[in-house]
Design brief:
By secondary structure, the protein is mostly helical. Helix content is 69%, strand content 0%. Helix 2 runs antiparallel to helix 3 (55-65), helix 3 (55-65) packs antiparallel against helix 6 (123-133) and helix 4 runs antiparallel to helix 5.
């Protein structure tokens, strides 16, 4: 019976944020994704490469909307994405003929590694999954996927987070580096 009772929850919803806070989150995410998208469409897409992956949208939520969260800190952003990309590429290369297994192992191993290295960043799970399910253009990158789009894109998002979050009077970013 206790098992089912746990599903009721026990806490309260988080408090709302001010419109000013919403505005800073909007501005940061707009500029961060714009910077990565401009690099994608103006530089790397012309070579048939990618710079813009879906997991960066989730990173933007954390970096610009939950700036104090441990999951949004630079160590987590960079470590979580890079480790997950490595795991995802390895899973795709070793088990690509079993995509269902490669997908499950990529995400699960990425989570375990992020826990063990204290770099838990939920979008990293998507980064690992994209390496497996991202299609031929992603698969052709091989381990280059770790550097670009993953590491480079995360660095661009981090730079914008440092600039925008510290411009806001009531924000400080990061809370910690290591």
């Amino acid at each position: 019976m206790k098992y089912w009772q746990k599903m009721k929850g026990g806490g309260q919803s988080p408090p709302g944020v001010s419109l000013v806070e919403v505005g800073w989150s909007w501005l940061g995410s707009f500029l961060g994704i714009t910077a990565v998208a401009l690099l994608h469409y103006n530089l790397v897409d012309q070579q048939g490469l990618t710079m813009l992956i879906g997991s960066f949208g989730a990173s933007a939520v954390l970096l610009y909307g939950a700036t104090r969260s441990p999951l949004a800190q630079p160590r987590n952003l960079l470590g979580g994405h890079v480790l997950s990309a490595i795991v995802g590429v390895a899973a795709a290369q070793w088990l690509g003929h079993y995509p269902w297994l490669a997908a499950a192992l990529a995400v699960s191993i990425a989570i375990a590694l992020m826990h063990l290295t204290r770099t838990l960043h939920p979008p990293g799970g998507a980064t690992a999954l994209i390496a497996v399910m991202g299609g031929e253009s992603i698969h052709q990158l091989g381990y280059w996927y770790v550097l670009m789009p993953t590491a480079l894109g995360a660095i661009v998002l981090l730079i914008i987070a440092l600039l925008i979050n510290n411009a806001a009077p009531n924000r400080r970013y990061p809370e910690f580096w290591f």
